[in-house]
Amino acid sequence: MASIEVSRIDYARYSDRQLAAIPLVVLVLALGVLGGWYLATGAPVTPGIDFTGGTELQIRAGASAAEIESTLGAESVSPVASAPDTYLVTFQSTDTDAIAQQARGAGYEVQSVQSVSASFGGDTQRLALVGILVAFGGMSVLAFLLFRTFVPSIAIVISAFSDIVVPLALMNLFGIQLSLGTVAALLMLIGYSVDSDILLNNHVLRRSGGFYESAYRAMRTGVTMTLTSITAMAVMAITATLFGIPLLPEIGTVLVFGLAVDLMNTYMLNMSLLRWYKYEGIAR
Questions:
Q1: With respect to CATH, is domain 54-116 assigned 2.60.40.3080?
Q2: Cβ distance 138 to 129 under 8 Å?
Q3: pLDDT digits (tens, 9 = 90+) for 5-42
């Protein structure tokens, strides 16, 4: 893999508090968004029909999204970018026959119908939550087993936590619902976060050389990997949107959010905690 030229950042110019301040403020704001969303809607993130149950129609109609939503009483209507006058229409009801008949009665061409029962959606939601908790817990245990000291290990855990929380808040702000696809993206973000943070911790704590030289070596590899992944996910999201491929636009967008946040958390928050540990904390 080709290496991206990474400029040397003069970390000595900034105190540990200055480095940690921006990631922590972003994390607090993200938690505030999720908390506010929970108070307003009853859920920290808007769940899709995968978790709530409901029906999704793909229709062809010579009308605007607002007109379709008003005519059918739909929960949401979104255009399919690759197909003119084609829309994905979501309903809370699972009565597919009645919904399809209503759409045809309004003069719309029904191209496909997908339905998820409320009980199945609830079971799926619980399984997805358990999956995320198990993955996060396993990552935390792995971090403590690898470094066996509190500060470097907790730095990895905090960074991974923020890498999940901030994209969830951005999903609310950009109108992306929680689905099986976005849950998969969040699970991938845990892996990306652990990879970049362990790379940095390992170079700083276990390899020869001064703190800044070791950190720069880790950054050359880590930044290259993350920027390459961001580019690939952005291309995937754009291409999938243009061709109307379901799920992939949301997965790609969430991964771009999370990977961008991971750059900030790894090379600001984690870096500040490692430097404090190296020069002022227990390792001194």
A1: no
A2: no
A3: 666 788 889 999 999 999 999 999 999 999 999 999 99
Torsion-angle region of residue 85: left (phi > 0), alpha (psi -120 to 50) or beta?
left
**How far is the C-alpha of 179 from the C-alpha of 254, rounded, in Å?**
11
Predicted pLDDT at 2: 53
The answer to whether 122 touches 164, Cβ cutoff 8 Å, is no
* pLDDT category of residue 134 using cuts at 50, 70 and 90: very high
* pLDDT band at residue 189 under the 50/70/90 scheme: very high
Instruction: Quick: pLDDT tens for 78-127.
Output: 887 667 888 889 888 888 889 999 999 999 999 989 888 877 777 888 88
Is residue 203 helix, strand or coil?
helix
List beta partners, residue 86.
Answer: 60
CA distance to 28, 130, 134, per residue, from 264 (Å): 14, 27, 25
CATH of 11-47+119-279, one of 3.40.50.300, 2.30.42.60, 3.30.590.20, 1.20.1640.10: 1.20.1640.10
Contacts of 152 (CB under 8 A, 6+ apart): 143, 201, 205, 273, 274, 277
Which residues have CB under 8 Å from 250's CB, separation 6+? 176, 177, 179, 181, 182, 185
231 contacts: CB under 8 Å, gap ≥ 6: none
Would you kindly state where each structural domain of the chain is located, as residue ranges?
Answer: 11-47+119-279, 54-116
Q: What is the pTM of this model?
A: 0.85
Give every strand in the sheet of 86-91, ordered side by side.
Answer: 76-79, 86-91, 54-60, 109-116
* pLDDT band of 237, cuts 50, 70, 90: very high
Tokens of 151: 């500060």
Cα–Cα nearest to 275, from 208, 223, 204: 204
